[in-house]
Structure formats: structure tokens, C-alpha cells
Amino acid sequence: MNAHREPPESSTGPEIFDVVLIGGGIMSATLGAMIAALQPDWSVALLERLDRVGAESSAAWNNAGTGHSGYCELNYMPDPDDAGKAAEIASLFAVSRRFWAGLAERGTLADTGFVTATPHMDVVFGERDVAYLRQRFETLRALPAFAELRYSEDPEVIAEWAPLIMQGRAPGEPVAATRFEGGTDVDFGSLTGSLVDAMTEAGARVRTGHQVTRLRQGGDGVWTVSGHDRNTKRRFTIRARFVFVGAGGYALRLLQRARLPEVRGYGVLPVGAQFLRTDNPAVVARHQAKVYSQAAVGAPPMSVPHLDTRHVDGNSSLLFGPYATFSTRLLTHGRLTDVFTTLRWSNLAVLAAAIFLDLSLIRYLIRELLSTRRRKFAQLQRFYPHANPADWHLIRAGQRAQLVKPHPTRIGILTMGTELITSTDGTIAGLLGASPGASTAPAIMLDLLTRCFPHHLSAWQPTLHHLALTPTRQEAPPVPEPGTPG
């Protein structure tokens, strides 16, 4: 018997929910699962515009599946002496691992096969990058979270770690690598589905095919959420005491329509990606790791090349990329007019400054857009010299809406992470930006609960403690067994 309070049915007005979640991705699913555990008597509704949840950025093939933890992502540590960002990401991903394990222990998360043990590596070439990686390793190894990180400049050792990458290379080429055995590959689409199942089991209502187009707050503080059912073409209206906008690329547009002053001047830059993929068992069996390397000189952080082992639906594949694409869509299943609907007088100068002051990004995007399949494959062969074109095919990954924000001296800047937006009264919140959001969703949603529901925290503490939702800095996540969350 579920303990959720049913929203009141009334012939005089729309039903009122305690919480309405807009968007059926990993963020809404995480928050919904938390609320189901913390406040099971609250009525919750999740509205997703597609016909199933987890089908946008959270879908397995719309992202690289890296459980971002700072062990291999060189763009989190451009200065090899500054481990702050890498250590922060490691700590936040540890929170995710503990949360998933806590739900599994409670029996709330039935399927734990979304996490697979997959070593995380860096491999770099040339004296400059070898010197960088060596210093990065020396900085990280002093932190408890990175104590198990290994380093080598021995080609034979590196060939054991990543044989595809080392085979066929000229002898004497400077090379270095780091390796962390406790890395992970995460199927965020599968995880999203499991979290939504947990919400539904607890009494939440999940309505797919429902696109939200309007948000308005009444004088009583309650929000009116309206839109249309994409299947029946009918309009719908519900009310909510609290709204979370986890709509990915559409989040900014909805927060703008909610007239939230906190997003004034904010804009988004849509960036898509492609990957080369192989499912050839003979190739896949020889590369069991996620291997990152340095971006080309002058290239933006989003261009870091990586050769990834993926585990999806019980099958293993390899991905290489990313290759940037451009579209004015803000979602993979969006419209070409999407980005124009976010333009406001308040963000035009911000967007222009962010774009034209970051010339390296413009050059990178132009070069990528003009790149042929042959040139893309040549990039793979620099990483994996013996790659056979017959084994690989291009796939499209998800569309990202990179956040552009006002800046006091540069007018506008392009940011690479995520930002949680909350209203002054705590009745609405939304998430903007991109990676590494999915990997750190529990920590982000814990921050949301702290900001928006401060009066409930003391009552929630026992359950939060049981779910291990008490972030600590520089804590190493446990080495996972295959198929377990931690």
C-alpha cells in the first residue's frame, strides 16, 4: 500500500501535486527517488515530452557513459598542480555511488546492472604531455581519493593496459599513462528507468507524451503547469506546490517563461556530438578501459578524445570521439527553432561576447563541421593505429545546451559544467548546463533539497543518513564488482 497523498480531484480546478518534475531524465528521476524515500506522503507527478523516460541525454548512446570521477578527465585539471576540480568530482561521484547502493540496500532499486567496473586511463604522447601527466599524477597521488592511481612511462606496461593504443607505434616515442582500476561505465538510461520505476512503485504518477509549455505562479505561491499531450493533442493543466525543471536543453526556455529573475541574461549554445562505434567482438575484447588523452593545442575542453568501453543491454562496444556537430536544436528530438526561442534582449550581448571572445571554440567547431569521415577516422588511427575502417560506423550522440552566463568583465562566458537555479521562495528550481551532471546528480539534488526544503531537513536526516547522502571531500569510491552499484 503506497503512502503517497493523492492530489485532490476537483471539478472546479486542476489537481494540485506537492511536487511536479518536468523532464524524464536522470535529474528528475534522482530527485523523484529521493522524495519517495524522504517524504512518501507527498503527491508527485513526472511529465516527459517523449513516449518514454530517459530517452534524451540520459539515453545510453547519447553520452559516453563515463562515471565522471576525476581519474581520467584531463580537462578537469588543466593545471597539473591544481587538483581542486578533479578532487571535487571524485567526491561528488562517491556520493552517487553511495546513494545508488543505499537504494539497492533498501530494495528500492531493483536493477543494479547499470554500473560495470571499467578501468579509467589517460594515455599521452610527446615530451610536453608526458611531463604534464607525470606532474598531474604526482599532485593527485597525495590525495586519499587517488591513492590507487597508477603511473607508467614503460611502453610494455602501457601495452598491457591498453594494447590497441600501443600496437603499431614507432619505438622511442615518449609515452605515459595513468590507470585507475576502480573506474566505471554507467548506463544512465537504464539507471533513469530504474529510478522512475522506484518512484512509480511509491505512488508517483508518470505521464509521458506531455510537453510543458507554460509555467505561472499564482498569488498563493502555487504554480500552474500547462502544456499539451503530444499523443492526443489535448491541453492539460495541473498545479504544483514545488516544480523542478529538469528538461535538459529546454530548461532555460521554461525558466524564462516562468519569469524567473535568476536566469536573466542567461543563454545557451547548442553543441552536438558524433562518435565512431564498433561492435566487433575481436576488437572490443582487446580494449577494456575508458582511455582519455589530451585535446589538440588550442582546442576547447569539450574536444578531449577518448576511446571508451561501453556496456549497454548486456553487450560491449567501443566508442571513439567526440566529434562536434552543430544544430539549432536544443534536444536530440527537438526543433530547428529551439535556440531562437531562448533569445531575449537581456542575453543577446552575453551570447555574442561569449562566442566571439572564445575564438578557439569557433575555430574548433568550424574545423569539426568541415571534417570528412576520412579525416575523422584518421583521428581514431592516431589513437589506435591499426583501426580498420570496416569495423567502425558513425553514430549521433545527444544534443547539449552549454550554458552562457553574464560576466562582470567579459560580458558573457561559456561554462562547461552545470548550474542549479533556485527561486528566492524555494518553490521552483531548474538545472542548466551539461557534463558532468548525470554522474553527480545525487549531490546536485541534495543541494536542491537543502536550498528549497530547509525546514524539512531535520526530519529527513535519518533517511539521508541511511542513503549515505552526506558528501565528504576527497573520499575514494569503493572498487566495484561487475554489475553492482558500489
TrEMBL record:
GO annotation, biological process: tricarboxylic acid cycle
Species this chain originates from: Nocardia yunnanensis
PANTHER family: L-2-HYDROXYGLUTARATE DEHYDROGENASE, MITOCHONDRIAL
Coiled-coil intervals, chain numbering: none
A Pfam entry, by short name: Mqo
Name of the coding gene: mqo
Protein name, entry field: Probable malate:quinone oxidoreductase
Catalyzed reaction equations: (S)-malate + a quinone = a quinol + oxaloacetate
SUPFAM superfamilies: FAD/NAD(P)-binding domain (SSF51905)
Catalytic EC class: oxidoreductase
Swiss-Prot/TrEMBL cofactor(s): FAD
InterPro entries: FAD/NAD-bd_sf, MQO
Keyword Flavoprotein: yes
Similarity comment text for this entry: Belongs to the MQO family.
Protein's pathway: Carbohydrate metabolism; tricarboxylic acid cycle; oxaloacetate from (S)-malate (quinone route): step 1/1
GO molecular function: (S)-2-hydroxyglutarate dehydrogenase activity; L-malate dehydrogenase (quinone) activity
Keyword annotations: FAD, Flavoprotein, Oxidoreductase, Tricarboxylic acid cycle
EC assignment: 1.1.5.4
Organism phylogeny: Bacteria, Bacillati, Actinomycetota, Actinomycetes, Mycobacteriales
